[in-house]
Amino acid sequence: MMSKYLxxxxxxxxxxxxxxxxxxxxxxxxxxxxxxxxRLQVDVPGSATYIGGxxxxxxxxxxxxxxxxxxxxxxxxxxxxxxxxxxxxxxxxHPEFHHSYDSKRHVTLGGMDFLVDTWVKSTATEDxxxxxxAHLKALLGAKGYRLPASMMSVRFVHLMDDGRKELMFIYSxxxxxxxxxxxxxxxxxxxxxxxxxxxxxxxxxxxxxxRFR
Length: 213
Known about the structure:
Layout: H1 4-19, E1 26-28, E2 31-35, E3 39-43, E4 49-58, E5 63-74, E6 78-90, E7 105-109, E8 112-122, H2 132-142, E9 150-160, E10 165-174, H3 182-185, H4 195-208, E11 211-212
Antiparallel strand pairs: 1-2, 2-3, 3-11, 4-5, 5-6, 6-10, 7-8, 8-9, 9-10
């Protein structure tokens, strides 16, 4: 059993190593290579541009987060499709923390089980400074890239180590080419009836947009 002192000391060491924001995984071309948790390579479409990678600790949750983002871009540097890959692991200092999700839907990708959920959302949101969305927007902003006003997204989450670690992939698309906004598709929105069909196709495109090996 790790002593409380040792756990706190280890958290400090890990936090210091993450502070520089240097990802452990590597991205080359359209592939992200992970040597652990899990060990694999992930390929995204050849049309995608690598936006960048980031690594930090969400201090409130003692959560070590590593993010890699790719996007298909339109003229004017606006994101059309987003491919967001993320690795997370709770630090040993908080053995009581576990990732949990409400979704009951599952798919298999690369021989691994993933939970699935979806949403439509405006991108004009205020995000917590430590949040993954805030870090994603910072990566995009640093390259001069812009998110569209409304996007529909599907998230795939693979849990490991009794929920202590996770591999997450989010695939998002701009709604503007369909003449829709997040408000249109929200419950009570004028086009909410279209959502079941759009959602099913979105999940299929998300599943087909990456390859594990």
